[in-house]
Amino acid sequence: MRSYSYAGQESARLALGLDRAGDERFLAALIQRAAADQVLARLLPRLTASEIGDLVDSLTGLLRRHLTHAEYHRLLMDDALPAESDS
Hints:
Strand content: 5-15%
Number of helices: 4
Order of helices and strands: EEHHHH
Helix content: 55-70%
Radius of gyration: 16 Å
Strand order of the largest sheet: 1-2
Number of strands: 2
Structural class: mainly alpha
C-alpha cells in the first residue's frame, strides 16, 4: 500500500482491489494527483496524438455514461442548464 493525500483530507492508506470504497478512494487520489499542474506539465508533452485522443475518448465516454446532460454542465462546465432536470 501507498500513502496518499487527497481532497484536502489527511493522508490515508490506499490500495486497489480490497473493497469498493477503498477502490473509489484510490481512484479519486490517483485522478487528483495526475491532474496536478506539475504532473501534467511533464506528462502531456510526452503523450502521442493517439494517446491524447484515447484518453479524451475514454474520459468523455465515462462522463456520458454516468452523468446526465444537466449534471455534466453543472459539474464540469460550471453552468446549469435552465429548465432541465438530472434525469
